[in-house]
Amino acid sequence: MLAFVIRRFLQSVVVMLAVGLIAFAMFRFVGDPVNQMVGVDTPQAEVERLRAALGLNDPMLVQFGRFILNAAQLDFGISYQFRQPVTRLLAERAPATLELAFTAAGFALVVGVLMGVYSALRRDSVLARVFQAVSLVGVSLPTFLIGILLIYLFAVQLGWLPSNGRGETVTLGGWWTTGLLTRSGLRALILPAITLGLFQMTLIMRLVRAEMLEVMRTDYIKFARARGLRTRVIHFGHALKNTLVPVITIAGLQLGSIIAFAIITETVFNWPGMGLLFLKAVHNVDIPIMAAYLMLIGFLFVTINLIVDLAYGLVDPRLRIALRS
Amino acid sequence: MNLQGPGMAEPVISVRDLVVEFVTRRGVLRAIDGVSFEIAKGEVLGVVGESGAGKSVTGAAIIGLIEPPGRIAGGEIRLEGARIDNLPAEAMRRIRGRRIGMIFQDPLTSLNPLYRVGDQLVETILTHTGLSPRAARARAIDLLAEVGIPAPERRIDGYPHEFSGGMRQRVVIALALCAEPDFIIADEPTTALDVSVQAQIIALIRRLCRERGTAVMLVTHDMGVIAETADRVAVMYAGRIAEIGPVRDVVKHPLHPYAKGLMGAIPTLASEAEELVQIPGAMPRLDRIPPGCAFNPRCALAIARCRTERPEPIAPHPAIARREHVEPGHRVACHLAEAPQ
Amino acid sequence: MPHPTSEEGKGLVGGGHGGRVARLIDSDILLSLRASGLTMVAAVIVVAMFLGAAFAPLIAPFDPFDPAKIFLSDASIPPRWQEGGDPRFLFGTDDQGRDLYSAILYGLRVSLVVGGLGVLLAAAIGITLGLVAGYLGGRVDAIIMRIADVQLTFPAILIALLIDGVVQALLRGHAREETAVPVLVISIGLSFWVQYARTIRGSTLVEKSKDYVAAARLVGLPAPVIMIRHVLPNVIGPVLVILTINLGLAIITEATLSFLGVGLPPTQPSLGTLISIGNKYLFSGDWWIVAFPGATLAILVLAVNLLGDWLRDALNPKLR
């Protein structure tokens, strides 16, 4: 088990170094960082002095090492457009993105599993067919179009929910801003969370349905019936537990996707999160923010992958044993 | 018509004119077409036949696990005299596991891999008895000991994958015995096991039934297993019973041409030198069962009547019975056995 | 329990070399197409949209790129059947006075070209790498498949966004109109190759061990010739299904990037760009500017996905 954990951890580090290399290459070669800091009339000697001071004349490997070390200490330099440390900019916007992402993930998981289980157990019912149709549409419609549709229906036509921003937020512990404690904050969260979670919800629903139908055909479910167990126990004990093992993996991996896809949702709803910051950085060629965001997303994916792999071992005893020996 | 085996009062299970159909896009297929038999307390009825002959479907029908598109389309099934084929789902569920147990073919797949062996035993015991969880666990350990699992108090907390194939089949048997059922359907219980383990499992089933007086329907395509274990045997072909009777009698003196071929296929030391009898052709698909006797296209002895009139399982003509040394209780569905040629 | 259909299945599975292509032409597939009304509708829609895009200059009543024909006085006219509609403009006009129907036809053309080329590029990259990885094996295989594994953990749309964003940043708006399409195609190509590579590698590994490859080697044919002439035809089958399924994804990716403002510029609008423009007028009541491009995009992707699903099922008899 320990060997497995160490091996997976080292793999993750290698992937992170690769992502770091890409971020570094962007940082170093896409637009000279010095040119961003000086004016057109700065004398050439001054430019050279700055270059040396920033260590841009050092060997590449040294520069890369420095970049990685700084990144490990969460230092990604100064944003070109805001003239502020990138880390602070990202930290200010992280709560907005995280609250949105986790709400969307919770929505996707709960509703997706419920719909999936229902359409597996009542596969020929009208509602199950409706769910299937919804899932096909959910997979086919681009996220931003869903957002626009929801805004048009619930904000423009019905006027029930706000269409942009986070609403009123409360600051917790001096730095975490939350919209979960105010009425307007919660109202503002509904549409973006549904928009962001809808695709994952349909994905989870399809997965749960397919997986559960598969499990229901297995011998151990037939045997559980033959033992006279109650239908409820068979469906929600045996079948669901076996269904959820692979679902956990996919759902866990989807969390990374949700945070990444927040870029789109945040743009549609003008949600003041990291995704919106990243997109603005792309428009303004603000390389430090782009590089930092890339590393952040890379880190998230690698970490989530690692956790999911390890959690999988905890849930499935077969794997747990295989790892122990 | 009296199909009872020798020397018994009320049979534990009685199946009469059972018809099971599957509704498919290409029409209704009859998987079981008019099957009748009875099994007495403590008796083992072996059911043999090729795959697709309807052995497993018969078992599934008795325990009420025929799922759509399948359905019981006719006949009746009685458990100790009371009809069970038309019970509501919930009432039938209470019978499953408590009064009728079932042992599946593949012990590797019949246990839920994510549940401890003990959990699966305890949940079954709790479902069917009023025992406390603590008492249920004690009973689970007793059951594991009874089916021959060493160190049961430790093994009870193991997961199925930690057991060998033979040990898992013992666990499956323990699960079938949880509520001391009157009747057990064992559906190919040894097919998936190593030959050396097969004999142990058969001996175990045999011992447990002797001790408890449980009736057993042993479904298999292995005539060797039947010869060793069963009291009586039913030979099935294309959803019908071709021949049924005391096991030694049917093995030694088969009357149905198909049963003769089947018995000829048992390799024994004595018959090693002899050529194995091969039946030409294959069993028909369910949608291609010919009229008359289902076996007639493959039968070397078929007469005109075999192609039009369906034979019913009856006692052979006394002259034939005498000639072939057939014992009472031996029935065959063959026109040739109805009168001496 | 009996499996009455198992024998049918067997006949379809055992195809041998090129079996999949044969199966595609097999009348069975046309039968299943006719059997599914929804798929039939989807096929008609896809064909109609392809034709509409291909012949946009002939069909469209206006040239949305000709500033001489666009008048601000025609701006924001609702669809023809609405009050205040103008018979010249079927779906109304946008804020610049452009005919939406014409703009959609041209936008569809851009979306399909970018999506189609992107998917083809992805297939080309994936097939090449998969073939090389599977055939050569060893370290080459390990490196290619490791990269594929890592890339697979990130959503393709995110990778496309990153590549596209970085390249756009690199070019700093220089000649954006000329570079936008190739940049998008490359972004999509680099984001979607993994699935092809994995599939092709898997079947290449199987084919490699067969006698005809050994024979070709014995004759002394060079590896590239064996790969392209002998192995490729036998492993290419599933690519068609992935192509169809990925086409929908690629179109969505392009639309999303354009919506986010890093794809096609407003001077060369795709469906995504049109939606992005229309989104600004959602609150002013000019719903049609976003609704028609949005509906076109949704119907296109839905139809392509339906076709993809059907194709996958039809070529995989086990699923039926």
3D structure, described in words:
The complex is a heterotrimer of chains A (325), B (341) and C (320). Chain A has 325 residues and is mostly helical. Chain A has helices spanning 2-29, 33-37, 44-54, 60-72, 86-121, 126-140, 143-157, 183-216, 219-226, 231-269, 274-283, 287-315, 317-324, and strands at 170-172, 176-178. A two-stranded antiparallel ribbon of chain A has the order 1-2. Chain A is globular. The model of chain A has no long low-confidence stretch (mean pLDDT 82). Chain B has helices spanning 55-62, 89-95, 107-110, 117-128, 133-146, 152-155, 165-177, 195-212, 223-229, 247-252, 257-264, 318-324, and strands spanning 13-24, 27-39, 44-48, 70-79, 82-83, 100-103, 183-187, 215-219, 232-237, 240-246, 331-332. In chain B, strand 7 (183-187), helix 8 (195-212) and strand 8 form a beta-alpha-beta unit. The two termini of chain C are 18 Å apart. Chain C has one domain (7-65, 90-319): MetI-like fold (Orthogonal Bundle). In chain C, 71% of the residues lie in helices and 0% in strands. The chains are: A mainly alpha (325), B alpha/beta (341), C mainly alpha (320). Chains in contact: A-B, A-C, B-C.
Q: Summarize the helix and strand pattern of chain B as letters.
A: EEEHEEHEHHHHHEHEHEEHHHE
**Content-based structural category of chain B:** alpha/beta
Please state the second-level CATH architecture of chain B. Answer: 3-Layer(aba) Sandwich
Name of the CATH class of chain B: Alpha Beta
Which structural class best describes the helix and strand composition of chain C?
mainly alpha
**Any low-confidence stretches of chain C, pLDDT <50, length ≥5?**
1-27
Name the helicity range of chain C: over 70%
Number of strands of chain C: 0
Helix tally of chain B equals: 12
Uncertain regions spanning at least 5 consecutive residues of chain B: 1-8, 269-276
Rounded to an integer in angstroms, the radius of gyration calculated over CA atoms of chain B is: 21 Å
Order of helices and strands of chain C: HHHHHHHHHHHHHHH
CATH architecture of chain C: Orthogonal Bundle
Question: What is the CATH first-level class name of chain C?
Answer: Mainly Alpha
Task: Report the portion of residues of chain B in β strands.
Answer: 15-25%
Assembly type of the chains comes to heterotrimer
